[in-house]
Every structure is written in C-alpha cells, then in structure tokens.
Amino acid sequence: PLLSMCTDKSTTSLRCWWRQRQKSQHAVTGCDSGFGQATARRLDALGFRVFASVLDLQGAGAQELQKSCSQRLTLLQMDLTKPEDIQRVLQHIQAHTNSTGLWGLVNNAGFNDTIADAELSPLGKFRTCMEVNFFGSLELTKGLLPLLRAAGGRIVTVSSPAGDLPFPCLAAYGASKAALSLLMDTFRSELQPWGVKVSLILPGYYRTGKFCFTERRVGQKVHQALPPAPQPRQLAKPRQDGPVHPGRSCPGARSTTGGCRAGARAVGLTGASLTLQGQHATRPSGTCASSSWWPACPRSCCRPTARTTWRRSTGSSSSS
To answer: What backbone phi and psi angles, to 5 degrees, belong to 104?
Structure first.
C-alpha cells in the first residue's frame, strides 16, 4: 500500500508538472535561423508553448520550424522596423496569455550589414541598426512587461561583445548593442521588485546561417560603403596606436568559416543552451559572455571594461 501511495503521488506530481509546463509560454524573436531558431526548437521539445517571430513566413527557416516542431509553436511574422508589425504581435500574444501571463521573452533578433570604418559608414546604416537592435527590442519588451510581471517571468536578451568593446569596422552594430545592453541592465534593476529577472547573453563567433565575416567579404562591404564621391589615388596612412595588419581592409578581421575555430561552431543546441541558461536557471547570471570571440580580436582594442570582468576559461563574466 505504501508503494502504491508513493507511486500515485509521483504520478500526480508528474502530471501537474507537465500541465504547468504546457501552460508556460515563451516569446522568441529572430527565429529564421541561428540562436533564435535553436532556442525555439529546444523550448518546443521541452514541452513549452512558443511564440516564434520570423521575418519571412515563407522563408526556409519558418518552413523548417513548421516541419520539426509541434503544434505548441506558433509562427508570427514581425519586422522590428515596422511598429504595426510589433503591435500585431503584441496583440496576438496578449490575446493568448492574459490568464497565465508570459513566462519568458527572448530578444534575439538582430541586424548588421555594414562592416566599415565609422567615417565610411552611411548614417542610414546607423539608424537601421538602432531601429532593429535597440528600438524594436525596446518597444516589444515594454509591450510585454505587464504579462511578464503577471507570471514573474524572465527576459533574456542576446547582445554582443561588440557592445562592450570597441570592434574595428563595427561601429554601427556595436553602438546599437551597447545601447541594448545598457537598457537591459536598467530593466534588471527596475524590475527586480516585481520578480522579473533580466539576463544578457554575449555570444562569440558562431555560424548562424547568415553571411560570415571573411576578409574578402569585409573588403567588399567596405568598398560598397564608400560614398559615390571621387576618391583620391593616394591616401595618407592613418596613425594607429595598435598593431597594423598589412593587406587587410579591416584590422583584426578573421574568417569565421575557417579561422577562430574555438568559437565558430554550428549553433545547434549550443546557442540554445546559452539562452536557456538565463531562461531557466534558478539564479540566472546578469551577463553570460562567451570567450570564443577573444582570439579573433586585436589586443589593442579588446581590453576588459570597468563594468565587466571577463573569464576566458569559462566564458562567463561578473559585474564589478
């Protein structure tokens, strides 16, 4: 009889746990490929309900999610540069989570197509990066805060080491990620009384299905970013305190297809585990940083900041 009672209690607890898991709902942005797609798959496999936003519902990434995931996953089209898309997604999530709230939000969607010196980068590229990487995530997060407070949920944001350290030729992208990281640090302190936890993920170099920063690609991007004005035949050599790399259009640029092997891994579960570390940890770290980007950066421009102490061995960081 005692064994039967224990078995019945275990079965009941397991059923309650499974029902609670099915009620827990998460929103993930940027699921067309890379970290977002891997995270959405993993959450679906764990039995959670997932709202996965993609840029193109007819794209290969969206179709792959439809084939590989269960009916618990809902695909939503969203362009973070269009406020009407964000409002439509907010209304859909609010309509399906009013009673339970939203347990998790993963701000993963990001954008960068400019690899050039800040002087050569058009102002429009800076504005586009800010619209997607900062303002879009800000508007979506603000709209979902009531649901996150109701569930005592968590916000996980995928930022970048380029937002903490000066990466050459990534001024537009780095500035937008720096603004995003500071915003999430502020949310962390403001939402603490409400029981909402906020985590930052700073991944290194990973193959995410998008273009890779090879030296040839960098050179092409820099050339495309040049203004149409006539260029002088000879340019004065710039004075530079750090090491100069002859023959490279961007100092310190390395290929993520062959070089930087420590960090250029297929995303798979690795990218999802980085995000899930902040999503489901009992006491999530404020910032989780991967050390895989370290070997690819010139030492002159990649020094630890006062805010973050980097640990190369574990890939984590601690705020100071």
So the answer is: -145, 140
Beta bridge partners of 204: none
Q: What is the pLDDT of residues 13-33, one digit of tens each?
A: 555 444 555 458 999 999 998
- Residue range 275-304: mean pLDDT, rounded: 52
| Helices and strands (H and E) in the chain: how many | 9, 11
Q: How far apart are the first and last CA of the chain?
A: 56
In degrees and rounded to multiples of 5, residue 299 shows phi and psi of: -65, -25
Percent composition of the chain: helix, strand, coil (DSSP 3-state, to 5): 45, 15, 40
Sheet order of strands, 25-28 included: 73-77, 49-54, 25-28, 104-107, 154-158, 197-202, 287-289
Strand-pair partners of 308: 319
Please report, for residues 117, 217, 219, 312, the alpha-carbon distance to residue 224 in angstroms, rounded to integers and kept in the order given.
12, 11, 9, 35
Q: CA-to-CA distance for 216 and 156, rounded, in angstroms?
A: 34
Residue 173 is among the residues annotated as catalytic for this protein: yes
CATH assignment of 23-227+243-319, among 3.40.50.970, 3.40.50.1000, 3.30.200.20, 3.40.50.720? 3.40.50.720
Contact criterion met (CB below 8 Å) for 271 and 38: yes
Q: Which residue has the tokens 């299905």?
A: 209
**What is the CB-side half-sphere exposure of residue 226 using CA atoms within 13 A?**
12
pLDDT tens for each residue of 101-149: 899 999 998 888 878 888 888 888 899 999 999 999 999 999 999 999 9
- How distant, in Å, are the alpha carbons of 145, 191, 237 from that of 138? 11, 14, 41
From the candidates 48, 103, 173, 205, which is the catalytic residue? 173
Assess contact for 146 and 66: CB atoms under 8 A: no
